[in-house]
Amino acid sequence: MSGSIEVRGLSRTFHTTVRRPGFLGAVRSLVNPERVAKHAVTDISFEVQPGELLALLGPNGAGKSTTIKMLTGILTPTAGEARVVGTVPYEERERNARNIGAVFGQRTQLWWDLPVRESFAILRDIYDVPADEHASRLREFDDLLDLSSFWDTRVRHLSLGQRVRSDLAAALLHDPPVVFLDEPTIGMDVVVKEQVREFLRYQVEERGRTVLLTTHDMTEVERLAERVVLINHGRLVLDGTLDEIRRKFGSTWQVRATLADGHAPVEPWPGVVLVRRDGPQVVFGPDGPAAPTVHQALKQVIERYEVTDIALDEAELEDVMRAAYVQAGDMAADMAGDVAGDVAAQAPARTQGG
Amino acid sequence: MAMPSALRAWRAARVTPLGELHTPPRMTAALLRLTVQVVLVASLWRGLYAATGTTAGLDREQAVTYAVLAVLATRVRELDQYSGRDTVLQHMHFGTIVYWYLRPLPPQRYYALRALGEQIYGFAWAIVGYAVCVAAGVVQPPKSAAVAGVFMVSLLLGQWVLYYIMLAIDQLCFFTLRNGAAMLILIFAQNLLSGVYAPLWFFPDWFITLSSFLPFQATLSVPLSLHVGRIQLSDAGTQLAIQAAWVVVLALLTRLVWRRAALRVISQGG
Ligand SMILES: Nc1ncnc2c1ncn2[C@@H]1O[C@H](COP(=O)(O)OP(=O)(O)OP(=O)(O)O)[C@@H](O)[C@H]1O
Ligand SMILES: [Mg+2]
């Protein structure tokens, strides 16, 4: 078992100084700083296979960016281990740098005063990419991201969408097998988002790159990811397919059917309840954790009853995720229950202020 | 396995000059400012010397030459990094510093390459300015080929010291994000103590003594004094040795800080 990305028991605790309110508080903080430990990521394990796209999901502050920072080597974990293409990223940062590309949301790595193409050329030199390879890769990226319409413009004059597309291209110019994207499509319009998704799909399917993506855009997840890892309060709560998440948290589907025989007896079956009956109109809903997906339920209804009309209401992934985040929060809190006592008690020797 | 070395990474040196070349208005402004400064400084010092022959061991021609060379020399590292969002302070502020640690080129080497490109570019400006000023008779050329040679060596060492001083100021940004004020004070001190505002020879003795314990005068005061002959060739050896010593001391110091800076970034995650 050696995926492109292997994460075992990864944890990261930040130690910060609490600022007390008010003037006296400020003085007290100076004299006797109160330190708290913040467990941003706790005991996370997962694997991403070569050529797989995994979405790392979770509400704000869940620990997604912290996880990605450890995998890119710019943050050292307090416990656990990570390997990216066999390299421990925070121990061999330079070697890791050749294997990965990274885009951090709204932070650009391009040079503000230079035209995009000059930025690309400087990255080509830094990564030592042969000129012909660089040129052909640029052509490929241009086809998918339409870069040439603005690549002679200086970065400071680019629109957000143009800039992020340039940043995506910049991150992939050295042909890295693994790509980390922390909210890459934040603030983009729908057309550009679709273009970026197309680009990512191409990079995964045609180029075989491994992609780890975080996003708050559920459409994106639906279009791109087969597998997701859900974290909350720094803990992994689910590692599975979108269908599994739907089954687990998406308890809001309904199947509405019109029966051919309005007086036929209707009984619920395991995993499915009868929500409402009004003559020939019946509405089924999911029941418990073993409930079938909406598509399975649809099939089951048709098999059991003679229907003249059938329709389904499926919860939007967004609703599913809302339910998942809320429930996952409770689950993470339960898991943390045994160790909750030490959160505030630790008084580490080193502080890291601001 | 050894890392394949990035053979062409040195070309990152072109970042800042390219940025300048792509912004012609900035170059025009720089040219204008430089011209005005040279003219003003030259007439100021001529005016100051209207009634005296020699002060602080400098005669009129020496003083004017010194002052104009100081203006030209500041051009060497006075590029508009700020508007290019390329200062360490800004990278820390915007969080883009993480990309420095995500490349196969170590941040300290990237920083050095960029500074080198900047200094070479600025040097080109200074040389053209120098040639024009000599031709116009504003600046007196060195007295002999030996003086010229020693001046070149001393100028090179001075720029090297200056590089480390600027680096040290930038490195502060890794540890405090609110050092805009500290930066301004340091830059003022650097200009004052290196003799940009006025040759150090004009300051009181205690000031000169104090300054001799600091690295600042090694950047400009020493090479310019050699150029105008205020430091004799016979003393040049000592001065060059002191400059070289500062290069070594500051190199070791900033190297240490780079290590702490990396720790800072990888413990905070940028
Ligand atoms: N350098 C730091 N010092 C102290 N606490 C930090 C630091 N970086 C992150 N944290 C804390 O760790 C937790 C996880 O942060 P992280 O940025 O990983 O969340 P996220 O999942 O990326 O959230 P978002 O969706 O908002 O981007 C947060 O509570 C955050 O406040
Ligand atoms: Mg984040």
TrEMBL record, chain A:
Pfam families: ABC_tran
InterPro entries: AAA+_ATPase (IPR003593), ABC_transporter-like_ATP-bd (IPR003439), ABC_transporter_ATP-binding (IPR050763), P-loop_NTPase (IPR027417)
Domain named ABC transporter: residues: 18-258
Protein localization: Cell membrane
An annotated GO cellular component: plasma membrane
SUPFAM superfamilies in alphabetical order: P-loop containing nucleoside triphosphate hydrolases
Protein name: ABC transporter ATP-binding protein
Organism: Streptomyces flaveus
Membrane topology recorded in Swiss-Prot or TrEMBL: Peripheral membrane protein
A Gene Ontology molecular function term of the record: ATP hydrolysis activity
Domain of life according to the entry: Bacteria
Keyword list, A-Z: Antibiotic resistance, ATP-binding, Nucleotide-binding, Transport
Broad class of where this protein is predominantly found: membrane
Biological-process GO terms, alphabetical: response to antibiotic
Signal peptide (from-to): none
Automatic annotation (TrEMBL), chain B:
Keyword NAD: no
Membrane-crossing segments per the record: 120-139, 145-169, 181-200, 240-258
InterPro entries found in the cross-reference section: ABC-2_transporter-like
Keywords assigned: Membrane, Transmembrane, Transmembrane helix
Pfam families from the UniProt entry: ABC2_membrane_6 (PF06182)
Statement: the UniProt record of this protein carries the keyword Membrane: yes
Protein name (record): ABC transporter permease
Organism: Streptomyces flaveus
Top-level taxonomy: Bacteria, Bacillati, Actinomycetota, Actinomycetes, Kitasatosporales
